[in-house]
């Protein structure tokens, strides 16, 4: 059965927001789209009906993207968040990855990538695109202090390292199981054990761990 998602978008630029609504409704996988002018309006919508995905502009009046995402992550942990931004600000992206945001897209992103990101955050919990990869590589290269302690790769078994790499390649649990000849249940257990070992709570943390420890170059 084909999946269909409910998507809300918050952006204070009316023409852009309405164009995004029309674009989203053109995607086969989108069942419903609602829009809001700022974070406060978005949270009001979510009181009555919770979406699968919230697409949030970073810079908005009344309540900006960062504050809005913080509330969503606390109150609605099952909602996947895609951040829209005009600039590839490393500081904002690293900070919001630490918060637990699921994807970052520039506002000039192609429609195909937007649709891909929506599927990725729902099905795989994170969209690991070139923007995120470049920010994480730069952060590691400049040897900045990580936002969480760095753990040794040696703490993971070879199988666990392999699973982390496949997660970073955006494979689903089912795809990882098929590739490694493991059941989905076994892969889920491995992933949960890995997260516990390295002290992260989501796929975002796994991706950051992979960069900071050199599993991904």
Explain what you see.
By secondary structure, the protein is an alpha/beta fold. It folds into two domains: about 5-140, Rossmann fold (3-Layer(aba) Sandwich); about 150-210, Arc Repressor Mutant, subunit A, CATH 1.10.10.10. It has ten helices and five strands, in the order E-H-E-H-E-H-E-H-E-H-H-H-H-H-H. It has a five-stranded parallel β-sheet with strand order 2-1-3-4-5, sandwiched between helices. Strand 4, helix 4 and strand 5 (about 105) form a beta-alpha-beta unit. Helix 8 (about 175-180) packs across helix 9 (about 185-200). The longest helix has 15 residues, at about 185-200. It is globular, with a radius of gyration of 17 Å.
Give the topology, please.
Elements: E1 5-10, H1 14-26, E2 30-36, H2 39-48, E3 53-57, H3 65-75, E4 80-85, H4 90-99, E5 103-106, H5 111-124, H6 130-141, H7 158-168, H8 173-180, H9 184-198, H10 203-212
Helix pairs in contact: 2-3, 7-10, 8-9
User: How do the strands of the widest beta sheet line up side by side?
Assistant: 2-1-3-4-5
* Main sheet overview: 5 strands, parallel
Percentage of β-strand residues: 5-15%
Return the CATH architecture of the largest domain. 3-Layer(aba) Sandwich
Average pLDDT score: 87
Estimate the helix proportion, in percent.
40-55%
Give start-end ranges of low-pLDDT stretches. none
Would you state the CATH class of the largest domain?
Alpha Beta
Structural class: alpha/beta
* The number of domains: 2
CATH topology of the largest domain: Rossmann fold
Q: Total helix count?
A: 10
Give the termini separation: 38 Å
What would the principal axes of the Cα set say about the shape?
Answer: globular
Name of the CATH homologous superfamily of the largest domain = Response regulator
Say how many strands there are: 5
Rg (CA only): 17 Å
Order of helices and strands: EHEHEHEHEHHHHHH
Protein name: Response regulator transcription factor
Domain HTH luxR-type: 149-214
Keywords: DNA-binding, Phosphoprotein
Pfam families: GerE, Response_reg
């Amino acid at each position: 059965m084909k999946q269909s998602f409910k998507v809300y978008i918050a952006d204070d630029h009316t023409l852009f927001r309405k164009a995004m609504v029309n674009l989203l409704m053109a995607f086969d996988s989108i069942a419903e789209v609602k829009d809001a002018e700022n974070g406060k309006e978005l949270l009001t919508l979510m009181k009555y009906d919770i979406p699968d995905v919230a697409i949030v502009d970073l810079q908005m009046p009344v309540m900006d993207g960062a504050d809005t995402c913080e509330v969503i992550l606390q109150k609605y942990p099952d909602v996947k968040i895609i951040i829209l931004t005009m600039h590839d600000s490393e500081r904002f992206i690293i900070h919001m990855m630490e918060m637990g945001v699921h994807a970052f897209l520039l506002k000039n992103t192609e429609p195909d990538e937007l649709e891909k990101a929506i599927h990725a955050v729902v099905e795989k919990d994170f969209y690991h695109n070139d923007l995120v990869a470049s920010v994480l590589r730069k952060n590691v290269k400049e040897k900045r202090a990580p936002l969480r302690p760095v753990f040794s790769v040696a703490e993971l078994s070879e199988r666990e390292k392999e699973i982390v790499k496949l997660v970073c390649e955006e494979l689903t649990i089912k795809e990882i199981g098929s590739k490694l000849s493991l059941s989905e249940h076994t892969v889920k257990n491995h992933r949960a054990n890995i997260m516990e070992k390295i002290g992260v709570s989501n796929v975002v943390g796994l991706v950051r761990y992979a960069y900071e420890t050199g599993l991904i170059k």
